[in-house]
Amino acid sequence: MRDTAYNIDPSSISAEEWQARCELAALYRLIAHFRWTDHIDTHISARVPGEPGHYLINRYGVMFHEMRASDLVKVDHAGDVIDPRFGPKSVNRAGFNIHSAVHAAREDVACVIHTHTAAGIAVSAQEDGLLPISQHALKFYNRLGYHDYEGIALDPAERSRLVGDLGSHMVMILRNHGLLATGRCIAEAFNQIYFLERACQAQVQALAGGRQLCYPSHVVCERVAVQEEEALVDGLHLLAWESALRLIEDGEAAYRS
pLDDT for 12-45, tens place per residue? Predict the structure, then answer.
């Protein structure tokens, strides 16, 4: 049975923060459901609504499949824990260094996801990066950043280079490292990482086939990218999010605690 000593009384915080906590905990569990975790490493963060400069991130050591709203730790922009329930070592500072850089530079970003999946790492190690060979990949055609590997993200100086490489994109491949996806809401961030991960999986399998690849024309690639942008405007990612939540509905009471 989980330790309830850290439980939050929802009435003690704003309704907006509690909702963000529940959605972020659900996202952690969905990442686990799709097997995109790396044991206790990698992270997902979200802004605290109505509290500029404050963010929610996982308590280090809690597995993604067991994440609850109460397990999320509130930190400031420097990654310092400001949640009175937890000590200073409750958060992986190296992991939050990446997240805080993006949140500080992009006011439009509400959620940041970073993963170390086998397919994501494989594509990040390929010189040509993500190839426009699948419909999933075309969602990111000319809409994807790349950041060269500089070691474990402990150096604050890397932050400016990382956000410069992300630019105005919503997703980025961290060379020799993994994937990064953002969203203007948690549902959109999930949409971005889902399709980016699937595109990487398809690429790894296509290259493993050892046959010549077929590339759509630039005109077709750009058309699909625009169609995908229009789908976001139409809110299809919200429909997909509500459907995805049913995948973990057996544990709904748990992640909402």
Answer: 999 999 999 999 999 999 999 999 999 888 899 9
- Sort 221 into a burial class: Cβ within 10 Å, 0-12 / 13-18 / 19+: middle
Closest CA to 58 of 109, 96, 108, 6: 96
Higher confidence at residue 218 or residue 40?
218
DSSP track, 157-180: THHHHHHHHHTT-SEEEETTTEEE
Scanning the structure block, which residue is given the tokens 């459901």?
33
Residue 150: CA count within 13 A, CB half-sphere: 15
Give residue 149's pLDDT band: very low, low, confident or very high (50, 70, 90).
Answer: very high
Residues 114-134 pLDDT 10s: 999 999 999 999 999 999 999
Pairing, β 54-58 against β 43-47: antiparallel
Residue 158 and residue 177 in contact, taking contact as beta carbons nearer than 8 Å: no
> CB–CB of 171/179 below 8 Å?
yes
Q: If you write DSSP's letter for every residue of 119-149 in order, what string do you get? A: HHHHHHTSTT-S-S-SHHHHTTTT--EEE--
Q: Which of 147-161, 196-210, 241-255 has the lowest mean pLDDT?
A: 241-255
Do 116 and 38 touch, CB atoms closer than 8 A?
yes
Q: Which two tokens stand for residue 55?
A: 């963010």
DSSP letters spanning 32-77: HHTT--BTTB-EEEEEPTT-TTEEEEEPTT--GGG--GGGEEEEET
| Cβ 83 vs Cβ 75: under 8 Å | yes
Q: How many residues does the chain have?
A: 257
